[in-house]
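Structure in, sequence out. Go:
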């Protein structure tokens, strides 16, 4: 996508002006749905962590940056003889690199990795919640559609001390829900 692009969505006779300062800051899996969802706007600008609709900088949509850029964050939990471990690293404003490992009796039984993009609906509200006996808070969802399983990473909004890993696979036997994982 070029820095200045125009498109005319179906049913909207006037073209939308899209401006993206640096497209390498976002994945296509994030950009395409975001621009589709904002197709009633006259202009949409993506500048760093801000989505500016119709030049309204005061009400810019802020992309979550709770996860630090280029820093490896490790989450894990041990339940009985099973160990669950999720490693994430935010590589740009919309994308995290991840690795999920599940061990049973010190033997790896699940190992998955890839890139996951921030769900483009994040600006409608939180994508899920973490609820413990002490607190409840929202989660941002990152999605990887690149394998036979749709993978969802849930990372806390304003609090990255807990996460969850989910996979929804074509082969239902391979579905995984990690439960709450804690930052080490």
């Amino acid at each position: 996508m070029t820095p200045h692009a125009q498109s005319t969505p179906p049913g909207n006779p006037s073209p939308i002006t899209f401006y993206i300062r640096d497209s390498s800051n976002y994945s296509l899996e994030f950009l395409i749905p975001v621009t589709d969802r904002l197709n009633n706007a006259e202009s949409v600008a993506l500048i760093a962590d801000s989505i500016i609709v119709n030049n309204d900088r005061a009400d810019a949509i802020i992309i979550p940056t709770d996860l630090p850029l280029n820093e490896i964050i490790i989450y894990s939990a041990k339940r009985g003889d099973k160990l669950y471990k999720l490693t994430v690293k935010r590589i740009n404003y919309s994308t995290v690199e991840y690795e999920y490992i599940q061990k049973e009796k010190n033997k790896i039984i699940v190992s998955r990795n890839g890139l996951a993009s921030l769900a483009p609906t994040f600006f409608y509200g939180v994508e899920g919640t973490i609820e413990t006996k002490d607190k409840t808070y929202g989660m941002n969802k990152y999605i990887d559609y690149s394998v036979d399983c749709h993978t969802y990473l849930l990372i806390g909004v304003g609090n990255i001390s807990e996460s969850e890993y989910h996979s929804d696979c074509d082969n239902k036997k391979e579905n995984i829900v990690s439960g709450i994982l804690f930052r080490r």
